[in-house]
Design a protein that fits this description.
single chain, 412 residues, alpha/beta, TIM Barrel, Lyase, Ornithine Decarboxylase, Chain A, domain 1, 2 domains, nine-stranded mixed beta sheet, eight-stranded parallel barrel, 18 strands, globular, binds ligand LLP
Length: 412
């Protein structure tokens, strides 16, 4: 049993029996621990930590994170409005736009959030707005990394950020309109394996910053990885701090009073704290493959299908030292690609056993859908003293269909 999680196999099994599966279960204490680790990393420097809420935006989890001294990073107006429930100061909400509409921009200006703009055309629209005053600029540092090509955002060809050679034009444009660029930002990708790469991108940002006279903050993005596979290289945060600390310290000497550096990981706070519980419904042997058919799938955890992501899978109903077999864990969606894990040695399993899909707290529920019109999983938050909070009630099939008909304004 992984000692990072305070929830035992026995607890998983009893939660599955009580609330039914599929069910997401989160360890509140582990999330708090990650927040504390983050905010104490650069204690002697003006560094703030934000949480990229796209990783998991259940409001109860946002509350835990907010109370641990971490702010919010958002990427849509919907996320901004959600975070508005947790702060009285909208400027604390960092909003990185991506292909934003005029309506969204107008609303962001009206609300007073910190808008981070990643396209020259949008920057001009922003400056032309009579009520706009200042914003942050997202650049493309031409250094990208990620656990998969689909999540590499710093690559020069990626759709994100303003090209380095266009930065001067942005500065001139701000002057022309009499507005200010007060922040500089880059996010190189999700699942950065090597701390040196993040530090290299930080240096690109710090260098680019010299052209901006009104700067009050530099945001280095997120991307701190989670070790999903036992062979995954661990991104040692302390090691990173040793590399990044002196770079920031030197830069700070030339910065005005009140200047801040920011980081905005998402996955790192919540991935390991979340587990997707499912129940084995069928066991079948197809020539060479022994399938365990579950009551969840790509609609609840898309990562294996979308990024070939590897998640630990454990049969929590059986002793771990029981005789093993090699299984492929399949979902219940009508697509042959709906496979959650391939060729895993697990205790000899039976229909009705509960299986835990681990490290699913980030980009699990937020990427879940109702494909095949299936219900979404319920969500449970487990507190350190074992107190259980239902943070999203499980729905049965009839409730899901009723809600769907209502949303479609279909009169039955
Ligand atoms: N900041 C920005 C601007 C981002 O686009 C992202 C993630 C983050 C921060 C947080 O990245 P993190 O620290 O969580 O790596 N669905 C994919 C991950 C997509 C991430 C997209 N952007 C997955 O399941 O791996």
């Amino acid at each position: 049993m992984d000692n990072k999680l305070s929830i035992t196999h026995q607890t998983f099994e009893s939660l599955a029996k009580k609330y039914g599966t599929p069910l997401y279960v989160y360890d509140a204490q582990l999330i708090r621990k990650r927040c504390t680790q983050a905010v104490s990393l650069f204690e002697d420097l003006p560094v703030s930590w934000l949480y990229a809420i796209k990783a998991n935006d259940n409001p109860h989890i946002l509350k835990v994170i907010r109370e641990s001294g971490v702010g919010f990073d958002t990427v849509s107006l919907e996320e901004v409005l959600l975070c508005g429930h947790f702060t009285d100061n909208p400027a604390e909400i960092f909003y990185t736009e991506n292909s934003m509409s005029d309506e969204e921009m107008n609303e962001a200006i009206r609300l007073g959030v910190t808008l981070n703009i990643g396209a020259v055309s949008r920057l001009e629209r922003f400056f032309q707005h009579p009520d706009s005053r200042e914003c942050s600029l997202r650049i493309n540092p031409a250094i990208g990394e990620g656990h998969h090509t689909r999540v590499n955002t710093g690559d020069p060809e990626s759709k994100f950020g303003v090209r380095l050679d266009l930065i001067d034009d942005c500065v001139k444009m701000a002057d022309k309109y009499g507005k200010k660029i007060v922040g500089l930002h880059a996010h190189i990708g999700s699942g950065i394996k090597r701390p040196e790469n993040l530090v290299a991108a930080m240096k690109v940002l710090l260098e680019a910053a010299s052209g901006f006279k009104d700067l009050r903050m530099i945001n280095f993005g997120g991307g701190v990885p989670t070790p999903y596979h036992p062979d995954d290289q661990i991104f040692d945060l302390d090691e990173f701090a040793k590399l990044a600390g002196p770079v920031l310290k030197e830069d700070l000497e030339n910065r005005p009073e009140g200047f801040r550096y920011l980081f905005e990981p998402g996955r790192w706070y919540v991935a390991e704290a979340g587990t997707l519980l499912t129940t084995i419904q069928t066991i079948k042997n197809q020539v060479e493959t022994l399938y365990l058919g579950t009551d969840t799938g790509m609609h609840h955890l898309l990562r294996p299908m979308l990024y070939d992501a590897w998640h630990r899978v454990e049969n929590v109903s059986k002793p771990q030292d029981a005789p093993q077999k090699v299984y492929t864990i399949a979902g219940n969606i009508c697509e042959s690609g709906d496979i959650l894990a391939e060729d895993r040695a697990m205790p000899d399993s039976e229909v009705g056993d509960v299986v835990a899909i681990r490290d699913a707290g980030a980009y699990g529920m937020t990427m879940a859908s109702q494909y095949n019109r299936r219900s979404l999983p319920g969500e449970i938050l487990v507190e350190k003293d074992g107190v259980i909070q239902v943070i999203r009630a499980p729905k049965n099939a009839q409730e899901t269909v009723n809600e769907f008909l209502r949303e479609c304004a279909f009169e039955v």
